[in-house]
Amino acid sequence: MRIVLVGPPGAGKGTQAAYLAKNLSIPHISTGDLFRANISQGTDLGKEAKSYMDAGNLVPDSVTIAMAEDRMDQPDAEGGFLLDGFPRNIGQAEALDAYLKGKGVKLDAVLDLEVPEDEVVKRIAGRRICRNDSSHVFHVDYHQPKTEGVCDLCGGDLYQREDDREDTVRKRLEVYHTETEPIIDHYKAQDLVVTIPALGKVDEVTQRAMAALDKA
Ligand code: AP5
Ligand code: ZN
């Protein structure tokens, strides 16, 4: 299957993507995680992305689209993938449409995770991620690791993301409303959007998403 996950910062895209990708045996492709991996490896791409990310802005399309396409071209993504955080504006959505058309394949569904803004703020404030792999995500209250400050999955240190500071979160939410939300209408026109209420326990949300995909 080829799936896009969309939703505001802190909606639980990364958390859900990890379970959905495992259940569906497809790779989880997160442009945010790809940027963070580049930043921790000190690559030129990471250096360029960091200033945009720290300010809560989108990294320019020229960089982002090439990186996403390169990842989708890897052999493990041939049979399908779960995109998390891409596309994030109309330009990226159109680029993805063209990319898929060129490969002769289509998206199966766009899952729109719906969460009220006050909940998003609580989720982001308590989020802790792993130094070794930013897809290892925890929460100080809602998803505690077995040992405080230590990743259950790999033993790495947990820390707070730099762009999770309150002023940056406000900016990211604004960018979400102005730049990213319009892609939902873009995909509604293709009859691909399924809205998933994303309040409740992590596994309840996963079940809702799996049920929606069964019908897709
Ligand atoms: P990115 O990393 O994609 O961040 P985001 O979209 O802002 O999303 P988040 O990672 O903040 O949240 P999430 O929805 O994954 O929530 P999570 O599962 O962690 O992007 C970061 C930056 O990179 C962007 O600002 C931009 O600069 C750049 N970028 C990335 N992609 C780009 C693109 N395509 N174009 C241009 N720039 C791009 O959950 C949040 C917390 O809640 C966690 O602590 C989790 O444990 C907890 N939680 C999850 N589910 C539940 C639940 N059901 N109940 C209680 N707690 C929960
Ligand atoms: Zn880890």
Automatic annotation (TrEMBL):
InterPro entries: Adenyl_kin_sub, Adenylat/UMP-CMP_kin, Adenylat_kinase_CS, Adenylate_kinase_lid-dom, P-loop_NTPase. It is found in: Cytoplasm. SUPFAM superfamilies: P-loop containing nucleoside triphosphate hydrolases. ATP binds at G10, A11, G12, K13, G14, T15, R127, V137, F138, G200. AMP binds at T31, R36, N57, L58, V59, G85, F86, P87, R88, Q92, R161, R172. It catalyses: AMP + ATP = 2 ADP. Its EC number is 2.7.4.3. It is an enzyme of class 2 (transferase). Residues 127-163 form the Adenylate kinase active site lid domain. Residues 30-59 are annotated as: NMP. Keywords: ATP-binding, Cytoplasm, Kinase, Nucleotide biosynthesis, Nucleotide-binding, Transferase. One of its GO terms (molecular function) is AMP kinase activity. Consists of three domains, a large central CORE domain and two small peripheral domains, NMPbind and LID, which undergo movements during catalysis. The LID domain closes over the site of phosphoryl transfer upon ATP binding. Assembling and dissambling the active center during each catalytic cycle provides an effective means to prevent ATP hydrolysis. Monomer. Catalyzes the reversible transfer of the terminal phosphate group between ATP and AMP. Plays an important role in cellular energy homeostasis and in adenine nucleotide metabolism. This is Adenylate kinase. It comes from Streptomyces chrestomyceticus.
